[in-house]
Amino acid sequence: MYRVGSSLHDVLELFDKHGAEGYGEAVTQLEHALQCAVLAQRANASDALVAAALLHDIGHFLSGAAPEQCDPDIKHELVGAQFLSGLFGPEVTEPVAQHVMAKRYQCTTCPGYHDKLSPASKRSLVQQGGFLSADEVSLFTANPYFKEALQLRAWDDSGKVDDMQLPALESFTPLLERLLKGCNPGREHA
């Protein structure tokens, strides 16, 4: 299985190594991550949800292959949440873990939602299990981070705009540092 991240440096290093890669959309992995985080900020989301928006696809980086070449069984959302669990609490990792289920839920319960997905997202939906059963809908809606996962999903769907002005990844470092497990207010993190 994939390792658990041991430092924020591990996370940022993955973006340095893989952020310029494409994933079947008009933007790179890094541009998508930054767009999702900016959209979360514009919606006045909590710091934890902004971090989840920024980090939601980090599981793609852990396979060593470009996302469009990944084994569909990789379950990037669960791999990413596991990797992040050593650094962040469930308020960050659970929306990450549930963002694919949120897409499947929206496709199942919201008429027309599927039609608005990008072609790449429609292809990945099939690989991710497609529409949900009634039992899966019940299980997902019972998750304590259900609403946050739906919010993250909306930004994930919208964060694919070519040529959007974006801040540097490093501008999110202070926010991520504040959310690290064991962080004491006012304490510096290496």
Q: What structural class do you assign from the helix and strand content?
A: mainly alpha
How would you characterize the largest beta sheet? none
| Helix count from the secondary structure assignment | 10
Shape verdict:
globular
How many domains in all?
1
Relative helix content:
40-55%
Q: From the 3D coordinates, which CATH architecture would you assign?
A: Orthogonal Bundle
Through-space gap between termini: 27 Å
User: Order of SSEs, N→C?
Assistant: HHHHHHHHHH
Note the topology.
Layout: H1 8-18, H2 29-42, H3 47-55, H4 76-84, H5 90-109, H6 113-116, H7 119-127, H8 134-141, H9 146-158, H10 173-179
Helix pairs in contact: 2-3, 2-9, 3-5, 4-5, 5-9
Plain-language structure description:
The chain has one domain: Hypothetical protein af1432 (Orthogonal Bundle), CATH 1.10.3210.10. The longest helix has 20 residues, at about 90-110. The protein is built from ten helices and no strands. It has helices at about 10-20, 30-40, 45-55, 75-85, 90-110, 115, 120-125, 135-140, 145-160, 175-180. Residues about 65-70 and about 185-190 have low confidence and may be disordered. It is an all-alpha fold and about 190 residues long. The two termini are about 25 Å apart. The chain is about 55% helix and about 0% strand.
